[in-house]
Amino acid sequence: MTDRILTTLMTEHPTDSHTLSRYEAAGGYTALRSALTMKPEEIVEQVKASNLKGRGGAGFPTGVKWGFLAPGAERYLVVNADESEPGTFKDRQLLERDPHQVLEGVLISAFALDVHRVFVYVRGEYPRPARRMQAAIDEARGAGLVGDDVAGSGYAIEVSVHLGAGAYICGEETALLNSLEGRRGEPRIKPPFPAVAGLYALPTIVNNVETLANVPWIVTNGGSAYDAIGPEGSRGTRMFSLSGHIERPGNYELVMGMSWRDLIYDVGGGVRDGRDLKAWIPGGASAPWFVPALHLDTPVTDDDVGRLGSMLGSGAVVVMDETTNVVAAALSIVKFFAHESCGQCTPCREGTTWMEQILERILHGAGRPSDLDLLLDISDNISPGLRWPPAMTTICPLGPSAVSPITSIMRHFRGEVEEMVMAGATHV
Amino acid sequence: MSERITITVDGKELEVDPGTLLIQAAQDHGTYIPRFCWHPRMNPVGMCRMCLVEVEGPRGPMLTTSCTAVCTEGMVVDTRSDTVKKAQEGVLEFLLVNHPLDCPVCDRGGECPLQDQTLSHGPGESRFVEEKRHFEKPIAISDLVLLDRERCILCARCTRFSDEISGDPLIEFLDRGTYTQINTFPDEPFASYFSGNTVQLCPVGALTATPYRFRARPWDLEAVESTCTSCSVGCRVSVQASHNEVLRLLGVDVEATNHGWLCDRGRFGFEYLRSPGRLSAPLVRNADGELVESTWAEALDAAAAGLRRVIDGSGPAAIAGIGGARSTNEEAYAFATLLRDTIGTPHLDAAVGEAPDPLLLTGAANRGIIGDLETARTVLVWGPDLKEDLPVLYLRVRRAATELGATLIVAHPAPTGLDHCADHVLRYRPGDGAGMLARLTGGDDELASVRDALAEGPVVAIVGRTGMTEDPGLANAVAAFAAGLPDARVLPVAHRGNLFGAIDMGMSPVTGPGRVALDAASRGRDTTGILEALDSGEIGALVLLGADPAADHPSSAMARAAVDKASFLVSFDLFVTESNRGADVIFPVDAFAEVEGTVTNLEGRVQKVNRLVPGVGQSRPAVEAIADLASRLGGSIPGTAAAIADRIRETVPGYDEVSWTTLGWGPGRDGVVVSASSPAPDGSVDGSAPDGMALHLGRVLYGDGTMIAAGPSLAKLVPAPTARLHPEDAERLGVADGGSVTVTGDGGEAELPVTIDPGLLPGTVAVPANLGLSFGASPAVSVEAVS
């Protein structure tokens, strides 16, 4: 069984895996050449059959998303390389170490979608990945793989790299489109979805870097081969970014379905310094936390994690050991979201900062007993019912994301928070 | 109209038009959903989140902003569920956590949507004990508008107005998250002609305007609905006063004219009412030649005796009358009756050499209304720069072009405010309008796409004089051409407040009351002719009703000299002006908001103006003063505006449907469009641009008129005049931007700083018409560099 799709070349040739010569020597761009001989709808069918899901966070089936692309004389493909979910650093590696693999996926997908203009939106803090991507495009153009006549097929495509300006929210696809248009990075109200009215109000598909990097393999090996990898509902391999209090942090390309215990202890080498595991975030800062007593032996699949009230999200696993102050941990996440709120929606703009102020107060010994329920009620006013997947009083899920750490510490560590409030109260 | 659809709101089935926004549909059926950011005249953004309701979906009820939800067949909505109530209370609590709650010193306090909806939909108490967010406050974002970023709830109404409606996006959101704020761009103040609308739109007291700031509490204000008379659009306003002093004007949303918007000149232009320079007693010239305060009886006697002397000595035709255009129809009727009937002179005009042919204004074929712009496929604007001249009509044309998809064609000798949203801009040198029209109607290939656009009806053509050096015949010819376009509607325009009403009342040398064209024998001199006759001595006496030809006529230097030659001059005015400073008698009269009556806008729409405050000192309604003077001259004019209104209804053709009682409410609230028309004027024109430099004299919004000068807020916005030149001309003359040139016309000259404007055609010099300069009405000028 295949256990690597995306990281073979960069593992075998760590010094020059980003070059065209190395990529082509390893069989690169053969998928593109064969895709150009196929009918676009055949490629879409293969991607649908693969059951590839988006790797940016929402996990929506890629082929289904492609199917929503509205007809139009001009349509766009936008590559979301605004990887900014805290704990996530996989797209960075894919862009730096194997940009041609990403580009090949982009070119095939664009051809499949009958798109002739692609924008790669790279987060502003990623100058090197952006440079590598640009270099790959330039090399490919020199080799006749980008431009007016891709590999002699008559198919024309232009690919532009655009650097963001440092806003987390621009990873949200409609905020990204606004940013690309030169507007403020604020999520749009949906509908209309980008597939109907996206960039410059034209039909647009926005896909994550890792998602598109899978496409060459799918074209070469067939959608059904991809669909044979991993458990149902979580097909293919997936990049996990392990970080936090873990012995061997880093990116790992894995087939899903193992237990969290296997992932943290076998793959990640266990908790640092042999300490006890206190909690972990299974899928980026937006995801509700997991705790060993309830979740350690559950499977790492989209469906299982969803059923248990969280998500695999962007594949960022952040491990917290027994020394973690959960209020401080929650504060650092809430602070991040408060800082990154675009400011459009009242509940997110005001609520995230208010929660940050309360957590700060608790952490500094000035908590009040009423603060616990207040934090939960503010959360409820941002994400009514505190359910999963979250309901929202906001346009986009950033506000509800800031609620995840609050509900997590209240659900699993309420006693600790209460203790901190009471301890603070005695010396106030 | 497509078929109505059914939605269910709170268990009630409602029939609504497809495409209606849920918040509007609910409101139309009596269910008010709270809101801050939504405004029916602007695109929804769904930002404040106050209007959340639950809409049934495939996965159960879902919280949705009703301002962005479009009604669909079978939609089931709950606006009162526990979830909705909690969400709305939550949003209000969030809005208040960082709001300063300084309501006792806030201008908005008492009329504040945030206060009101906190009462109706809020949680009743706050649980916020943290430090509130602070900003420096207030900051001046323009000469008129101040911003308090702590009060701001970031609803984007002001930014959307500036972007979508007025087209000058000078305010924007800055920063993000909790530090999101409204602000201007560095070194670019919010210098919009429409800035006051953002103050009125603000749902809190974040934006305040200097003329009203800290002047009153809303509950102390008395208000009356009226019609703005600062130009001829006739915007509906609410005039508001405290302690007998007008303190502010607010726009009232009516479909017919202004959609609720006002320009800043209309909104803030009321300050002259309480200017210290306002006349408070009649002035009579004494034996020593000095103007001294007098009594009404003495002043009326003196005026009657003086006019009687001229009649007896030289005949009634030696007297002429020039009316201002800010008067009511009743005042204009009384004045026209005084001159034409009581005195018996045909020399009577309401324009001062700047307006189009009165026969065009009253008799354009296929005359349209402003509302025709809503359904126009093509809009032709060949007249004044609407943004400077008729600002709210500019907004309506801009809406047609940017929101409603009409093709916009602008023909003008200089860049205009509409060019940015025009599909075709026809530029010609001043004087060459006839040539441009010939090219357009002929076969000029370059204009084929313009002709194609004009072939797409309905066409709305807004036609007037582009500037004071333009032959009035051009507008007649353009109107005649436009009237023949498919489904054409022609809207003849002229700037001054109630010019159309004054002409309808007979204050015109060529038409009598009711736009009835006079036969050649009954016609008199227009203002230019009157001034020439004053100069030659053929006319000896002049009666002015709020008119100031010595300042407003294109040849103002000539006008000043002519007025000074009058052997006897009577003036009804608010101020001592360039024209009446040599008068023998000046009567102080009541002004806007001090008199009741009607006015007629550029559509022919008769609307009501209402009285809210008393005049100043001994000032009286002009109709009373005119009636008293008429009776001393043996005439009989009713002495009250109401009685004159009855007379107008009985005697003025077209006005028989117009009565004060029907104009106040119901369908009459939008006024009555008077349809009677005189025959269209002759539509032939020729002439060409002069060989040398050609002068364009277009108005600017803030001119140097008496009323603007008498109000501190607008007086400081009056720009310094410049001469705009094409770069080629500047180079040829050897002047740079900021250098000086002398512009010399047949009616005067001026030395002016140069502004380089590549939007002009070479051979053009553009100078503001209403900043006190006099060049004459001919486009032929010479321009020389001043070393």
Describe the structure.
The complex is a heterodimer of chains A (428) and B (787). Chain A has 428 residues and is α/β, with parallel strands linked by helices. Helices cover 44% and strands 11% of the residues of chain A. Chain A has helices at residues 8-12, 20-25, 30-35, 40-50, 62-67, 90-97, 99-112, 127-142, 173-180, 209-213, 215-221, 223-227, 260-267, 292-295, 302-307, 326-340, 346-363, 370-382, 398-412, 414-426; strands at 76-81, 117-122, 158-163, 204-208, 237-244, 250-255, 277-281, 316-321. In chain A, strands 3-2-1-4 form a four-stranded parallel beta sheet, sandwiched between helices. A four-stranded mixed beta sheet of chain A has the order 6-5-8-7, with no helix packed on it. The N and C termini of chain A lie far apart (61 Å). The model of chain A has no long low-confidence stretch (mean pLDDT 96). Chain B is of the alpha/beta class and 787 residues long. At the A-B interface, α16, α17 and α18 of A face β4 and α2 of B.
Quick summary:
Chain A has 20 helices and eight strands. With 428 residues, chain A is α/β, with parallel strands linked by helices.
Give me the secondary-structure topology:
The complex is a heterodimer of chains A (428) and B (787).
Chain A: H1 8-12, H2 20-25, H3 30-35, H4 40-50, H5 62-67, E1 76-81, H6 90-97, H7 99-112, E2 117-122, H8 127-142, E3 158-163, H9 173-180, E4 204-208, H10 209-213, H11 215-221, H12 223-227, E5 237-244, E6 250-255, H13 260-267, E7 277-281, H14 292-295, H15 302-307, E8 316-321, H16 326-340, H17 346-363, H18 370-382, H19 398-412, H20 414-426
Parallel strand pairs in A: 1-2, 1-4, 2-3, 5-8
Antiparallel strand pairs in A: 5-6, 7-8
Chain B: E1 5-9, E2 12-16, H1 22-28, E3 52-57, E4 60-65, E5 76-78, H2 82-97, H3 113-121, E6 139-140, E7 145-147, H4 157-165, E8 171-174, E9 181-184, H5 195-201, E10 207-209, E11 222-227, E12 236-242, E13 245-251, H6 264-268, E14 283-285, E15 291-293, H7 296-314, E16 319-323, H8 329-343, E17 348-349, H9 358-363, E18 378-382, H10 386-389, H11 391-402, E19 407-412, E20 424-427, H12 433-441, H13 448-454, E21 459-463, H14 472-483, E22 489-492, H15 499-504, E23 511-512, E24 516-517, H16 527-536, E25 541-545, H17 549-552, H18 556-564, E26 568-573, E27 585-588, E28 597-600, E29 605-609, H19 622-632, H20 641-651, H21 660-663, E30 672-673, E31 693-698, H22 706-709, H23 712-715, E32 723-725, H24 727-733, E33 740-745, E34 748-756, E35 764-768, E36 780-786
Parallel strand pairs in B: 1-5, 16-17, 16-25, 18-19, 18-21, 19-20, 21-22, 25-26, 26-27, 31-35, 32-34
Antiparallel strand pairs in B: 1-2, 3-4, 3-5, 6-7, 7-10, 8-9, 11-12, 12-13, 14-15, 14-27, 23-24, 28-29, 29-30, 31-36, 32-35, 33-34, 33-36
Helix pairs in contact in B: 2-3, 4-5, 7-19, 8-19, 8-20, 12-14, 16-18
